Amino acid sequence: MNYLQIQNESTVKMKKAPVKDFLLKVLERLGKDRWEVSILFTGDAFIQKLNREYRGKDEPTDVLSFAQVDNKEAFPARGGRFYAGDIVISMETLAKNANYFNISMNEELKRLLIHGLLHLSGMDHENNNPDQPMLVEQEKILNQFTGVVLL
Fold first, then answer.
1. Is 8 in a helix, a strand, or coil?
2. ∠130-145-62 over CA atoms, to 5°?
3. Angle subtended by helix axes 105-120 and 16-29, to nearest 10
4. What are 115-129's pLDDT values in tens digits?
């Protein structure tokens, strides 16, 4: 059983239950069990601070993932769980991206949550070219959840 901690510090009102259910299904789809993941929804100011501090980029971004370790065996489990890491999403940048790409905020939120989990799973991409294997996998997973409403 996976464990999720979700905190919303953004101005966008959301119910945690649908987000949690979605994340649990994606983790199951990824074959992850007994994972512990923390998700923080925030605004541009805070994510920009994190982006500057940890990536050297002084600008807001849509999602940041902070994996705790590179390898499951290298981290002692607590309570039988593997602490995978943290995902931080700026709801302000998410809204800007949804507008720019002419998609719903709901779709973009699902995409960013999947993106964050794939990074915690050890996947990465060199750029935002949609042919990158991680981004292909992201869209494949997203397409399996077209009817899911989070917002």
1. strand
2. 50
3. 50
4. 999 999 999 898 888
* Cα gap 142→107, rounded to integer Å: 8
Domains located in the chain, CATH noted = 3-143 (3.40.390.30)
Which residues lie below 8 Å from residue 11, measured CB to CB, with a gap of 6+?
43, 91
pTM over the 0.85 mark = yes
Tens digit of each residue's pLDDT (9 = 90 or more) over 65-92: 999 876 555 555 566 788 899 999 999 9
Residue 145 per-residue DSSP state: T
Contact status, residue 119 vs residue 67, Cβ threshold 8 Å: yes
Rounded to whole angstroms, the Cα distance separating 41 from 93 reads 11
